[in-house]
Design brief:
A: alpha+beta; Flavocytochrome C3, Chain A, domain 1; Methane Monooxygenase Hydroxylase, Chain G, domain 1; five-stranded parallel beta sheet; five-stranded antiparallel beta sheet; 19 strands; about 35% helix; B: Fumarate Reductase Iron-sulfur Protein, Chain B, domain 2; 2 domains; two-stranded antiparallel sheet; 8 helices; about 15% strand; elongated; binds flavin-adenine dinucleotide; binds FE2/S2 (inorganic) cluster
Chain lengths: ~625, ~250
């Protein structure tokens, strides 16, 4: 089946405005008759819940954590892009659009990305109105910094805690609506299933994490904002509760999953040390503004970094990409770190690390300036590694960070299930095969503040809804399936813990479906995943009972889904017979070892339809038409 | 340098808000000093699970000191003894071979225990619901640079806004007061021009909510500031008090 993204006609710059006019409206007095469920309270879910409630809809919002303020968006460090052009350095909506689509290696939908660039400026306005303490210059105006993949400074930031501040803004707007009784908040709930009635999303089934009660909630539309699935790799920069379960269970109910193999490996993270490690910590990309990446020229050079003279260092990014230097996009930076480490030039105890050196910046700007920009990141680095980055270079290595893949959505952000909208990292829509820094925060807030409030109205106004309640057999069915799975997990009583399985799965994915992929490895991984899945259902040990605060049981459900989903990633990676962005299949590379796209045959979104566990999913494609940009070999030289 | 240590843990175990809890003793051997405190608990939990005992329940998520989900009292100090550090960022190199470490949940009237080390902090959300926001509906904003904020004011607002809402200040306070938490939010918003129109209403409503939710009063013990993992200053409490007095003079508040 050829998928239709429902992109409106007309010139690129006018599509969104025209579409907003064409969308049907819900009369203000009727809005409160519609119930909307929002799952997730990150930037996407928090902003959507608040904005929809402000319009007058009756909103119910769910999240896993004890408070909506703790969604994983809180951890974003570096910043958020917008095309304000305050620095007067040549930025524009068009340039932000172009950089983003090129950064994604031409595998995203033009119209979505353009709209994202258009609303980027409104986001900054909204955030400032909410009181977000962005960095300012002495005149009291907003400051910008640079991020990868762009030659202009367009990133707004609040120290190294931009995500925290933006999320607290959305959270406070949400709390205001909760206080006014327009949003009902359900924290410590995990979505177990989406309920569809007459081909429409009409509710969800959730587990109350505190007491294990299964609860049913009905609505006229469901907005899924459940974030990314990076934890399929076990070790990632994601928070521990990040999962694929919410989106995967929608996939199992008929929502197509798009480009699952597009996962971002971020170049600057604190390297792995030891088997006990539970997560990896990002060192923000903003550090590449002032930090210089290097390794010793000679693999045998084991001197401490401060003893290695300039002439014996290889600043490989500056050498290979003179015009972007240390600010090449993430996929390029990560792959190059892997290459130098594979050549034996890696540093540190494991040899899987490169230096990120601030000594030149400290000499140039003084320690105080550097401290003001990155103080909290330096402190965090020192806490974890016991090394002081003001005195010795940081050691960094790539780690899983973000997932461009997600549920397929059309221009209205609606999935292939009517009435199921997907926002933020959970959808696939804007970043193609590689996301540029500071653009996920932008997308989450664009979706929640400025897109869903319009498109959901269009859907509600043009659909008819029969009256249903939660006694409907569809709810009954969902609850039964969920219960069965919980009971099964608790009854296996095997010999391996959930984490033990998860760690194994992570190794498989990192080794064979990470920064560099090949057919043999992918096929091997597929077999290994299948075996691990069989073993899981035979040998996992989940202690305790369902009617309790049972964190092992929560994890077990998530890992069960990762074990199925991982195979879908492999299938997707095998299908794409080209390299693009993060997806680097060794068989497809240019002479200079860069990703080599095949625009003739693979200029499309791959969207997968569930056909049953252990059955091959059905492939669908959405062709990508580029009417406004020329497809070029990405070059950052 | 990586080394390993052996420690003895005494951990508070409690099955729910109504039942009695007790300290239980566990031995954690060969713990790498590069582990975080929570990774050490993970290791203990894996061992408990494999020996068919219930693992220790504790809240956590980001494990990098920003989400505010983690929190426990370690040897009598919220988040442990290292200054400016959440328990998820506290590393085992801060402890010595042979140490005995006592781990307990936050204890405060407003934070009922859920299980073991996990407590219910929803009262903090309720304080924010009472007024910890600027009323700015989506879409109504002017151009961002039409509002200027002097750099030093923006920096002070950011210092206050850095609060992660973990509740350590409440756990540290002999009166279980949430003054530092509330003061930080009130200061952050009152310092900025955008927050001024609602300043009086905000401070009165938030303080009233704090009382109603069972938090105690501030008697200037300064424990909150000492234990705050984000080192939020009690200057923010003073600023809140000034705002409250100002609000008393403002007639527009009910
Ligand atoms: C360390 C780090 C730093 C980053 N820095 C930047 C940056 O500087 N700039 C940038 O643009 N991007 C950055 N990113 C990426 C960006 O933070 C995320 O992509 C973005 O915040 C995701 O927002 P979201 O709203 O889609 O999802 P999230 O913030 O992940 O929220 C997901 C929500 O869904 C809920 N949820 C999930 N599953 C379920 C379920 N089954 N049932 C119920 N609820 C559920 C969760 O409780 C949570 O509330 C960073 C990411 C990381 C990991
Ligand atoms: S787990 Fe997020 S602050 Fe500790």
């Amino acid at each position: 089946m050829i998928l239709d993204g429902k992109v409106p006609g007309g010139p690129l710059a006018q599509k969104w405005e025209k579409h907003r006019f064409d969308l049907k409206l819900v009369n203000p007095a009727n809005k409160r008759k519609y119930k909307i469920i929002v799952v997730g309270t990150g930037l996407a879910g928090g902003s959507a819940s608040a904005s929809l409630a402000e319009l007058g809809y009756e909103v119910k919002t769910f999240c896993i954590q004890d408070s909506p303020r703790r969604a994983h968006s809180i951890a974003a460090q570096g910043g958020i892009n917008a095309a304000k052009n305050y620095p007067n350095d040549g930025d524009s909506i068009w340039r932000l659009f172009y950089d983003t689509i090129k950064g994604g290696d031409f595998r995203a939908r033009e119209a979505n990305v353009y709209r994202l660039a258009q609303v980027s400026n409104n986001i900054i306005d909204q955030c400032v109105a909410q009181g977000i303490p962005f960095a300012r210059d002495y005149g009291g105006l907003l400051l910008n910094r640079s991020f990868g993949g762009a030659q202009v400074s367009r990133t707004f930031y609040a120290r190294g805690q931009t995500g925290q501040q933006l999320l607290l803004g959305a959270y406070s707007a949400l709390m205001r609506q909760v206080g006014m009784g327009r949003v009902t908040m359900y924290p410590r709930r995990e979505m177990l299933d989406i309920v569809t009635i007459n081909q429409k999303a009409r509710g969800i089934v959730v587990r109350n994490i505190i007491n294990g009660k299964i609860e049913r909630h009905e609505a006229d539309a469901v907005v899924l904002c459940t974030g990314g699935y990076g934890n399929v790799f076990f070790l990632s920069t994601n928070a521990m509760a990040c999962n694929v379960s919410a989106t995967y269970r929608c996939y199992k109910k008929g929502a197509f999953f798009a480009n699952p193999c597009f996962t971002q490996i971020h170049p600057t993270c604190i390297p792995v040390h030891g088997d006990f490690q539970s997560k990896l910590t990002l060192m923000s990309e903003s550090l590449r503004n002032d930090g210089r990446v290097w390794v010793p020229k000679d693999p045998k050079d084991k001197r401490p970094p401060t003893d290695i003279p300039e002439s014996d260092r290889d600043y490989y990014l500056e050498r290979k990409y003179p015009s972007f230097g240390n600010l090449v996009p993430r996929d390029v930076a990560s792959r190059n770190s892997k290459v130098v480490c594979d050549e034996g030039k890696g540093v540190g105890e494991t040899g899987l690390a490169v230096y990120l050196d601030f000594s030149d910046a400290i000499k140039r700007d003084g320690r105080e300036t550097i401290e003001k920009k990155y103080g909290n990141l330096f402190a965090m680095y020192e806490k974890i590694t016991a090394d002081n980055p003001y005195e010795t270079p940081m050691m960094i290595y790539p780690a899983t960070h973000y997932t461009m893949g997600g549920l397929w959505v059309d221009y209205n952000l609606m999935s292939t299930i009517d009435g199921l909208f997907v926002l933020g990292e959970a959808n696939f829509s804007d970043h193609g095969a590689n996301r540029l820094g500071a653009s996920a925060l932008m997308q989450g807030l664009a979706d929640g503040y400025f897109i869903i409030p319009y498109t959901i109205g269009g859907y509600l106004a043009s659909s008819s809804f029969e009256k249903i309640d939660t006694a409907h057999p569809a709810f009954e069915n969902s609850e039964m399936t969920a219960r069965k799975q919980l009971d099964k997990l608790l009854s296996i009583n095997g010999r391996r813990t959930v984490d033990d399985f998860h760690r194994d799965l992570g190794h498989i994915m990192w080794d064979y479906c990470g920064m560099s992929r090949n057919d043999d490895g992918l096929q091997k991984a597929q077999g290994m995943i299948q075996e691990l899945r069989v073993e899981f259902w035979d040998n996992v040990l989940v202690p305790g009972k369902n009617e309790d605060f049972n964190q092992s049981l929560e994890k077990a459900g998530r890992v069960a889904d990762f074990l199925e989903f991982a195979e879908l990633m492999i299938i997707d990676a095998l299908q794409r017979r080209e390299s693009c962005g993060c997806h680097f299949n060794e068989a497809f590379q240019t002479e200079e070892n860069e990703a080599k796209r095949d625009d003739k045959n693979y200029r499309h979104v791959a969207a997968w339809e569930f056909a049953g566990v252990d059955k091959s999913p059905v492939f669908h494609k959405e062709p990508l038409d580029f009417e406004n940009v020329e497809l070029s070999q990405r070059s950052y030289k | 340098m990586t080394k390993t240590i052996n420690i003895t843990l005494k951990v508070w175990r409690q099955n729910g808000p109504q039942v009695k809890g007790r300290l239980e003793t566990y031995h954690a051997d060969n713990i790498s000093t590069d582990m975080s405190f929570l990774e050490m608990l993970d290791v203990v939990n894996e061992q408990l699970t494999l020996s068919h005992r219930e693992p220790i329940a504790f809240d956590h998520d980001c494990r990098e000191g920003i989400c505010g989900m983690c929190g426990a009292v370690v040897n009598g100090r919220p988040h442990g003894h290292q200054k400016g550090t959440t328990i998820c960022q506290l590393h085992m190199r801060q402890f010595n071979d042979g140490d005995t470490i006592v781990v307990e949940p936050w204890r405060a009237r407003a934070f009922p225990i859920i299980k073991d080390l996990a407590v219910d902090r929803s009262a903090l959300d309720k304080i924010i619901q009472a007024g910890g926001y600027i009323s700015a509906n989506t879409g109504a904003a002017q151009d961002a640079n039409n509002i200027t904020v002097a750099q030093n004011i923006a920096e002070k607002a950011m210092d206050a806004a850095a609060c992660i809402g973990c509740g350590a200040c409440v756990a540290a306070c002999p009166n279980a007061s949430a003054m530092l938490f509330s003061g930080a939010k009130i200061s952050h918003l009152a310092l900025l021009p955008q927050g001024k129109p609602e300043a009086a209403r905000r401070v009165t409503h938030m303080l009233r909510a704090m009382d109603e939710l069972g938090f105690g009063n501030c008697s200037n013990e300064r424990e909150c500031e000492a234990e705050c993992p984000k080192e939020i200053s009690i200057v923010n409490i003073a600023r809140m008090n000034r705002e409250f007095i100002k609000a008393g003079f403002s007639s527009s508040v009910e």
